[in-house]
Write a structure and sequence with these properties.
The structure is a homodimer of 443-residue chains.
Chain A lengths: L1 E3 L6 E4 L5 H20 L2 H17 L1 H12 L3 H27 L4 E2 L2 E5 L5 H15 L2 E5 L6 H11 L8 E3 L4 H9 L3 E5 L2 H12 L5 E4 L4 E5 L5 H13 L9 E7 L3 H13 L19 H16 L3 E4 L5 E3 L2 E3 L3 E4 L6 H4 L6 E7 L2 H9 L3 E2 L1 E5 L3 H8 L6 E4 L4 H5 L7 E2 L2 E2 L13 E2 L2 E3 L1
Parallel strand pairs in A: 4-5, 4-7, 5-6, 7-8, 9-10, 9-17, 10-15, 14-15, 17-18
Antiparallel strand pairs in A: 1-2, 3-21, 8-20, 11-14, 12-13, 16-19
Helix pairs in contact in A: 2-4, 2-5, 3-4, 3-6, 4-5, 7-8, 9-10
């Protein structure tokens, strides 16, 4: 398979997708080895993960370099690598506590992880690490859009004795994913609704359970009492990190009418201060749109908004092609209405559509009417005032006076609402309960 | 819809299935009322369930009478009605404890319960009661095979002020179930794998989560040290209750070769002591096969077993038609092999295929090779010896020296393995976590 470079538009990388036969024979091998891995105990599994951590640290620059080529962006890449390495200690500690309490729980033998291209390393490891620690063998299929870093990751796996006997990572298309899923006893899927439906159809053949982490349309809610400077900083950061290609991005901003203009002025100023990293990876904050097809979605949402009366205050009227890559500037829209695509569907770009509200109840109804409900943030003068609103928002995780705290703090059990996710707690100590089945003995 | 009577074979009952329009407008009504139901608090919800309990007690005989006509059997009917009434106190107590601890959890607004014909009352109420207590509105679609008792149940609901605003129960075909499921935010399904696949396909349109309770092929394992008299009593009871039409039935018996003949003699003697209740509902222990199509499955499994060398020691070579109903005597088979249908697929009849084993490891491998893994039982001379084997069985619930303790004791969180179930703990205090989503506030 030939792979496009998001900065140049050139197909400058190639990899060989696994054949169905190889996938099936690998699954058989993993399945045979899983029993010993589970029986080896939690202390041994933690030791193996810790050894892997040391190898990853020693190859950190190689990994980050390949991941930067995959994604075309810089600081988010470094953050991703650090996040994953740090998460290994966290998961080991949580796993120890969990299994000390629940030693009769039994893991699904083979867990399949199907992961996306937007945070390719974090979003494959977020399921792989706890699944491995649970005693499962794991087959990971990262997106075919960002396969370069996977080659480095494979090398690190081969350097840890025994690890490649229970962990296989191989990039591929959704078709390869379907075959991998077919060999699995539990599927973890992170990606789009369209792909999710296909996975579910495939899984229904064997009634294989699937844990879904799907799209999002997270709102930022700014009450009249909010510190606007602080809110604007958080919103611009929350909307533009990874050029908006994040499930935790703010994709719609609801602000009380009395402070609408003041907030918008701040959003515009802060957006203008951010530069595209179009000439050099390390120059500027906003990287390219990683997946070419996403450009069409962003453009369609923008076009629809303008056709229905939205006004562009700063940013891009459509994605701009520069040196072969596609870029979208931090974009602030006003005069938006709830029925626009940009307020309804996942855009996955650095777009801030801002809508004024008068009545709190009406605003909360609009917020809760979304098909998605992953996270949200509320900005207010006091934490108490913010919490009172947060309690009425249908979303698994609500940040108070900050953006995407879930990703930074990474604790607290929560479950996505509506279409954002199905099946269990992904962040927080209860994560492990997703990978095991509980057994009870009746006397 | 005309409905067959399982004792006479006559179509002596009729009911009107809800139209798709009625279903959709009912769902809208329930959805609108659910918010107030949830906000009314756990104390109020418990009070409503307690009031319903009093109404049910006052109509107990009517309900049991209709349910006996639905199912054609007597003592299991009384037990079902008692079980459901008693479970109301239990769920109220558990709900109080659960919501005192988890007051930030938010229910799915509309829960759909699709329930089967084998224990029609228990298996609709087992999901409905905790869902209601969680603050959800509930639409129940019991099987169209056993609708008579539903009419009585509807009357009891109408007698409790407010209850019919958040609870609707209407029997219907799988087609009606698909429409009900389409209006739902969470689906609880109990039934066959074939129907489950259809539900999952329908649910995948809106990615509605589905909790499945599917088939089973529970083994009884008898070690050489077991008290054979006690084991035989439990096995015959566990295999023949409800004429074997139970997901908790023993459907395969593994016994150590040294005690095979002695156990088989006891099984035959105890089976012969049970009478068909073919002439009168209250005369004899074994009722009819409730669902006509199930007769074909039982006959196919028996035919296949005999064609492959199984020997009938007592019971029916095939289901017998008596006075219009179909009956199967408690049936003991020997010379069975693991590859026979009767050892592989769910039979749902009072059949005990007995297989001798020499090596413990080989037996456990056979036990765990099943596509199903709901429960199991181990019989041994000491609880320690039984537990050592139980720990190696892949099943959510293992009874020690008894049959189906899960149904009787009804505590202990467990999860079904393999095809027997997907999605959460049904019995035990964690049941409630199935109906709510957890939310976390990050400061």
């Amino acid at each position: 398979m030939r792979v496009r470079n998001p900065r140049t538009g050139e197909y400058d990388f190639e990899f060989q997708e696994c054949s169905p036969e190889t996938i099936r024979s690998t699954a058989r091998k993993l399945s045979a080895n899983q029993i010993a891995w589970y029986r080896s105990g939690i202390a041994n599994r933690i030791a193996v993960i810790q050894e892997w951590k040391q190898v990853l640290i020693s190859r950190k620059e190689l990994l980050a370099g390949a991941l930067a080529e995959d994604t075309g962006r810089s600081w988010e890449t470094t953050a991703e690598v650090e996040w994953v390495i740090n998460s290994m200690d966290k998961w080991c500690l949580v796993a120890k506590n969990f299994y000390d309490q629940h030693n009769e729980w039994i893991p699904y033998p083979i867990v399949t992880v199907l992961s996306p291209w937007n945070f390719p390393l974090v979003l494959s490891m977020i399921d792989t690490l706890p699944a491995l620690l649970s005693g499962a063998a794991v087959m990971v299929k990262p997106s075919e859009v960002t396969p370069r870093h996977v080659m480095v990751l494979k090398e690190t796996i081969d350097l840890v004795p025994g690890l490649n006997e229970i962990l296989c990572i191989t990039p591929g298309t959704p078709a390869a994913g379907a075959i991998i899923a077919d060999t699995s006893s539990l599927i973890c899927f992170t990606g789009s609704m369209a792909s999710a439906r296909k996975v579910l159809q495939a899984a229904s053949k064997k009634m294989t359970p699937v844990l879904f982490n799907l799209g999002a349309k997270d709102p930022a809610i700014v009450l009249s009492s909010a510190n606007l400077e602080m809110a604007a900083t958080a919103i611009v950061k929350g909307s533009t990190t990874n050029a908006g290609q994040s499930c935790l991005s703010f994709e719609r901003i609801y602000v009380h009418a009395s402070v609408h203009d003041a907030l918008v002025d701040l959003l515009v100023a802060k957006s203008k201060a951010l530069q595209l990293a179009d000439t050099h990876l390390l120059k500027g904050e906003i990287g390219p749109i990683i997946f070419e097809k996403q450009v069409l979605t962003i453009n369609t949402h923008l076009e629809d908004a303008f056709a229905s009366g939205a006004t562009l205050l700063t940013g891009s009227r459509k994605c701009e092609q520069i040196n072969g890559g596609y870029y979208c500037k931090p974009t602030v829209l006003v005069n938006v209405t709830q029925n626009m695509l940009v307020m309804q569907q996942e855009t996955f770009g650095p777009i801030m559509p801002v809508m004024a509200y008068d009545q709190l109840d009406e605003m909360i109804e609009m917020v809760n009417s979304s098909a998605y409900a992953l996270g949200a943030a509320v900005f207010a003068g006091t934490e108490e005032e913010a919490l009172a609103v947060a309690q009425r928002i249908n979303a698994g995780s609500v940040s108070i006076n900050e953006a995407a705290l879930k990703a930074i703090l990474h604790y607290g059990d929560s479950v996505s609402f509506n279409w954002s996710g199905v099946g269990g707690l992904r962040i927080g100590p209860e994560n492990f309960s997703r990978f095991v089945k509980k057994k009870y003995f009746h006397f």
